[in-house]
Amino acid sequence: MKAVHLKGVSFTYRGSGVPALRCLEYAQEVGEFAVLGGRSGAGKSTLCKAIMGIVPTLQRGEMEGEVRVLGRKIEGLRPFQVSRWAGLVFQDFEAQLFSTSVELEVAFGPENLGLSRGEVERRIRESLRAVGLEGFERREPWTLSGGEKQRLAIASVLAMGPPVLVLDEPTTDIDPLGREEIHRVVKELKSKGHTVLLVEHEVGEVEDADSLVLMSEGKVVWKGKMGKADSELLASCGVRPPEPWALAFHLGVPPLGPEGMASEIERVLGGRLEEVRRRWRETVDEGATPGDVVLEVRDVEYSYPSSQAQALKGVSLEVGEGEFMAVLGPNGSGKSTLAKIMAGLLSPSSGSVLLRGRPVRPGKVGYVFQNPDQQLFAPTVWEEVAFGPRNMGVRGGELEDSVEEALEAVGLSGYKDRDPFSLSRGERQRLAVASVLACSPEVLILDEPTTGLDYEEQRRMMEFLREWNLKGRTVVLITHSMWVAAKYARRCALLLDGRIVADGPTREIFSREDLLSLAHLKPPFVTQVGARLGMPFLSLDEALEALRN
Ligand SMILES: Nc1ncnc2c1ncn2[C@@H]1O[C@H](COP(=O)(O)OP(=O)(O)OP(=O)(O)O)[C@@H](O)[C@H]1O
Ligand SMILES: [Mg+2]
Q1: What pLDDT score does 40 carry?
Q2: Which residues face 61 on adjacent strands?
Q3: What is the 3-state secondary structure (H, E, C) of 120-150?
Q4: Is the distance from the beta carbon of residue 329 to the nearest atom of ligand 1 less than 6 Å?
């Protein structure tokens, strides 16, 4: 008996002309841990929802074929009936949370399974511990930070202890060490006999899964052992090839850890290492020095009205004209709070924020929300983008122009009349950016602009920001994606528990593994390898360039 078995499954969402799944065949053994990758729109979430019976029961459409979970036919069952055997952590995890406290949120599932009070309490404790949310029991879910909410969504499914666990991009908003922790919990469940299907863009982060599954255009196009998928295959399915594999492939050595890889490179280069290092030093570009201070944060403290704890405990920061800086730090460290204060959307409890020497006012500093859906509300794409400038008094031809320009900048010119919520996550993210750009902000702050995007969309978003920055504009980026920060930001500030603990050029910050791990971060693999060779590379391209010939 298979844990999951889909035979000839096709599904088309009601109102959509394009099938999300096309005669899909998929099987997973009991106790197998599979990682699923593929472009956005490939059908990954629809596959997850088909396993739960969410399509076609809750989200309607045309369905064909057969879905079985642990041998049982799912057809005709309601998702809550399926939840005895299978549990799903939604990609859109905020939509999953509905209770008035963290504890009640986690208790809901086990209580519905009819478990005893004692058992329910044990499960609450264990699953909150597994996701690092001990002490959050009485908090209201809506007051949690982005990553804390995602951790809660995972805990509430873990608490049900389903034999089949389906996780749809469960760590997009979780800090790097937290992601490792969640992956460890998942592996532990696997070792206890649970079957796991994990949708993940960064497949290299779960290298020890039993299998890798790749989807494209509604079909499973490849399934095999993790290490058997080469970079080309991954790239053809829109998945970023893991840096250890890519580096190993280029050097013709087996994939190794950072230490092993560094020694291997030393061995291969032999006496030429010094020369390579010298040439690398000559070519590295540490970026332009920033211009005058445009935005200044002075001794800012902040406490949320509903909370005793301070989210920011005295933050000072100067952002120079034309800078591209990243703010990094663990979940709940205060990044989004700081961003909202810098944008004038929250007023500090004490301290001040100055834009070119004057108190900041909303609109002048653009803020793109962590979740674009919290920002979008208009009936059409055009109206969405026009809202900001219109509010600032822009009218007529000038309004038309700023909307056109902003849509053009993010590649959404052809989408003017579309309903924002009919767009894909990547498109909604770009729309959110356009609606802020249209206000011609002096500084653009983006809160995790690459979450939920596939590799190509992430690159497109980041290349766009790079271009925009090269025109002299100022960008502040908040991200948990280490390769994105390393490759694109020229300066990084680390926020830890409401305080800035380090601030400096990206290469310098990323060379300090001990400091980063304090902030739950980890440099990209190529940086770790390079640091051991005295050349802390900031991207795979840079590493390959230096090591070529
Ligand atoms: N509306 C709110 N009410 C009360 N406390 C809040 C609220 N929003 C955030 N907090 C708390 O303030 C602290 C900082 O939260 P913030 O959202 O700034 O973190 P973050 O660094 O952006 O985290 P993440 O990486 O998870 O997005 C956290 O302890 C969080 O739980
Ligand atoms: Mg945040």
Answers
A1: 85
A2: 13
A3: HHHHHHHHHHHCCCCCCCCCCHHHCCHHHHH
A4: yes
Question: Are 192 and 317 within one domain?
Answer: no
Question: Range of 38's domain?
Answer: 2-233
Q: Which ligand 1 atom sits closest to the C-alpha of 334?
A: 18
**DSSP state letters, 425-494:** HHHHHHHHHHHHHTT--SEEEEESTTTT--HHHHHHHHHHHHHHHHTT-EEEEE-S-HHHHHHH-SEEEE
Of the candidates 87, 91, 90, 108, the one whose C-alpha atom is nearest the C-alpha of residue 99 is 108
pLDDT at 286 over 70: no
CA 49 / ligand 1 centre spacing (Å): 30
What's phi and psi for 26, nearest 5 deg? -155, 135
Pair 209, 135 in one domain = yes
191 and 303 together in one domain: no
Ligand nearest the Cα atom of residue 327: 1
Residue 173 alpha carbon to ligand 2 centre in Å: 8
Question: Which CATH number covers residue 484?
Answer: 3.40.50.300
Domain match, 344 and 456 both: yes
By percentage, how much of the chain surpasses pLDDT 70?
99
In the chain, how many domains are there?
2
Is there a single domain that holds both residue 186 and residue 323?
A: no
Give the tens place of pLDDT for each residue, 487-509. 999 999 999 999 999 999 999 99
Helix (H) or strand (E) holding 66: strand 61-69
Q: How many CB atoms lie within 10 A of CB 363?
A: 19
Q: Report which residue type is found at 386.
A: A
- Using a 10 angstrom Cβ sphere, with 0-12 exposed, 13-18 middle and 19 or more buried, the burial of residue 92 is middle
| Mean pLDDT across 152-162 | 96
Asked whether residue 64 is domain-assigned, the answer is: yes
Look up tokens 């190529």; give the residue: 526
Residue 541: other Cβ atoms inside 10 A: 11
Q: Which of 182, 205, 233 is the last residue of a domain?
A: 233
Average pLDDT, the chain: 94
Alpha-carbon separation of residue 213 from 114, 229, 231, 379, 458 (angstroms): 35, 10, 14, 37, 21
* Residue where a domain stops, chosen among 212, 233, 254: 233
Cβ of residue 444 lying under 6 Å from some atom of ligand 1: no
- Cβ(328)–Cβ(494) below 8 Å: yes
**310 and 173 belong to one structural domain:** no
334 touches ligand 1 (CB under 6 Å)? yes
Same domain (yes/no): 228, 297:
no
In a domain, 250, yes or no: no
CB of residue 145 inside a 6 A radius of ligand 1 = yes
pLDDT(26) > 90:
yes
Q: How far apart are CA 539 and CA 525, in angstroms?
A: 9
Report the 3 state secondary structure along 353-374.
EEECCEECCECCEEEECCCHHH
